[in-house]
Amino acid sequence: MSDEDIPEPDRAPGAPHPREASQVLGQDQAVADFLGAARADRLHHGWLLTGPRGTGKATLAWALAKWLLSGGAPDRLWTDPEAPVVRRIRALSEPRLMLVRRPVDEKTGRIRTEITVDEIRRLQSFFHMSAAEGGRRVAIIDAADEMNLAAANALLKQLEEPPKGAVLILVAHQPGRLLPTIRSRCRELRLLPLDPDGMAAILLDLGIEGDPARLAALSGGSVGEAVRLAGQGGLDLYQAIVRLFADYPRIDRRAVAALADTAAGRPSADGDPFDLIVTLIDRFLTRAARAGLLGPPYPEAAEGEAEVLARIAPDQRAAQLWAAAQAELSARARLGRAVNLDPSALVMDMLIGLANQPAS
């Protein structure tokens, strides 16, 4: 397997790796907190970047690494993208930087499900060997909540006795899974979901096309999820799901069959069609349940969505029915994938089952 063929577990499907980003957008408060610490000469040795998946945590982590290793100005996070150190960082050839992520199993060629203690031991060696050269060294752990217990305990020792000049940047999607002692030894920068304006700016910067307001609504403000949706035609597929329920409880079986056929497509670098369809069905049911409690959502994630949701989820009782359907179908999808059921048949069964859902 060549280097080009090796997957990167810290890259969202269909998106460039976060180390390629030229700037951090939509997270001004987190950037200001970091630069404020720098100006006050209180740069902590451990930084924990938290917030929903896809809100730019890894992009910020790489921006911090570039800033720290290039001696950036204290009043802005921007660094010259053509500076030698920044080019080395993008190429993963900067000797003062180490990336820790889930490794590839050499026997199977697949990415492991967790960060192992061997990866953290490599981090210990990195700090030990580079200490003789002096200066600052940076390690990025993405994602820290994917460490197994042995790896977490090994990292804790690094945080308790940090080498001089070392900065550890931890990306965590679920910080509650980290050891409390790890969290307590880091300064937290919490990133927030992006609004449509922030989403639009980032998607434009990435060259991604699509309605930013609808992508923001459907992705929950997650850029990574918005990129996946845009790359796989997620907005069009969600529109098709909304249309299915325009005449609920009647449902167009030919339209159901078309969605089921889409789910049977082969996974690619942009993502898994089955996972995308199931995710979109799950989002629709979740939004229906929320509409029964809070009213139709705005902005809409599809044309006519608010009208459809207002009709099928007019009250709290309907909200409970759709919430129960969401939980049941999510469990059925996970079980079906686990036992390798035909994706097309599974999606067909899920959608026909929703047509038989008791009307409110």
Percentage of residues in strands: 5-15%
Q: Please describe the biggest sheet, giving its number of strands, its sense, and whether it closes into a barrel.
A: 5 strands, parallel
Helix percentage range: 40-55%
**Between the first and last Cα atoms, what is the distance in angstroms?**
55 Å
Rg calculated over all Cα atoms: 23 Å
Mean pLDDT over all positions: 88
Strand order of the largest sheet: 2-3-4-1-5
Q: Strand tally, please?
A: 5
Q: Low-confidence spans: pLDDT under 50, at least 5 residues?
A: none
Shape: elongated
Structure classification: alpha/beta
The number of helical elements comes to: 15
H and E string: HEHHEHEHEHEHHHHHHHHH
Name its key features.
360 residues; elongated; 15 helices; alpha/beta; five-stranded parallel sheet; 7% strand
Q: Mind explaining what this structure looks like?
A:
Strand 3 (137-142), helix 5 (149-160) and strand 4 form a beta-alpha-beta unit. With 360 residues, the protein is an alpha/beta fold. It has helices spanning 28-39, 57-70, 84-90, 117-131, 149-160, 180-184, 196-206, 212-219, 223-231, 234-244, 253-263, 273-294, 305-312, 316-338, 343-355, and strands at residues 46-50, 97-100, 137-142, 166-171, 187-190. The mean pLDDT is 88.
